Amino acid sequence: MTLKNNISKVTDNLDKLDENREKILKISRQITRKCSNAIKAIHREEFNDYENQIEIIKRDLNEYRDLINTNPGYFHKYLSTPEQEYVEAICLYSIIQKKKIPNYEELEVDALHYTLGLADVVGELRRFILDSIRNSDIDNLNRILETMDEIYTYLFSLDYPSGLTKDLRHKTDTARRLIEKTRGDISLSLQMDKLSELLKENSNK
C-alpha cells in the first residue's frame, strides 16, 4: 500500500469524525437550549411543559450518546455540558416538587457530570427563593435553603485533585457564596414580614 493510500484512509477516517462531531455539536446545543427552557418552565410553574420538554431531552440524549459511542475516545468530552444541564433540570424539579432526587445511575449520566450539574442547582434554587420572596411566598424558604446547604456539604466533601474533578472546586466556592447571600436575603425577608405583621396588629388596635 502506497503512502498516498495510507493518507487517503486517514482522510476518510477524519472526514467521518468531523461529520459526527458537527452532528454532536448541533445536538448538544439543542439539548442545552431545551434544558434551559425546561428550567424556565419550572420557575413559571408550568410543570406539564417541563415534563414534555424532559421527555424530548431524554430522546435527544439517547441519540446523542449513540453518536458519542461511535468514537468515545474523541467524543466523550462533549457529553459534559448536556448531561450537566439535564441533571440540573431534573434535580431542580425534584427539589421544588419535594420528590426524591435521583442519583447518577438512575439518570444514566456520568458521575462527575452529575456532580457538576448538581452544583449548578444551587444558583437556580437561589433564583427560586428570590422569586418566592418577591411573591411574598415564604413558606418553603427554609426548606430550600437547607437543601442548598446539603448540596454544598456534599460538594465540599469531594476533595479530589482538580485534574479529576475539573471545575468542581470553583462551582463549590460559588455555591457557598450564593448560599450566604441567600441566607441574608431570607433573614431580611422574614424580619420585614414580622415587622409588617406587627404594624398590622398595631393599626388594628
Task: Break the fold down into its secondary structure elements and pairings.
Blueprint: H1 3-43, H2 47-68, H3 72-75, H4 80-96, H5 104-107, H6 111-134, H7 141-156, H8 162-165, H9 168-203
Helix pairs in contact: 1-2, 1-4, 4-6, 6-7, 6-9, 7-9
How would you explain this protein's 3D organization?
The protein is mostly helical and 205 residues long. The protein folds into 2 domains: 1-99, Up-down Bundle (Methane Monooxygenase Hydroxylase, Chain G, domain 1); 110-205, Methane Monooxygenase Hydroxylase, Chain G, domain 1, CATH 1.20.58. It has 9 helices and no strands. It is elongated and about 95 Å long. The N and C termini lie far apart (100 Å). The mean pLDDT is 91.
Q: What value does the Rg take, in angstroms?
A: 22 Å
Reported by name, the CATH topology of the largest domain is Methane Monooxygenase Hydroxylase, Chain G, domain 1
Task: Give the SSE order as H and E letters.
Answer: HHHHHHHHH
Shape: elongated
Largest sheet: none
Salient structural properties:
single chain; 205 residues; mainly alpha; Methane Monooxygenase Hydroxylase, Chain G, domain 1; 9 helices; elongated
Please sum up the structure shown:
By secondary structure, this protein is mainly α.
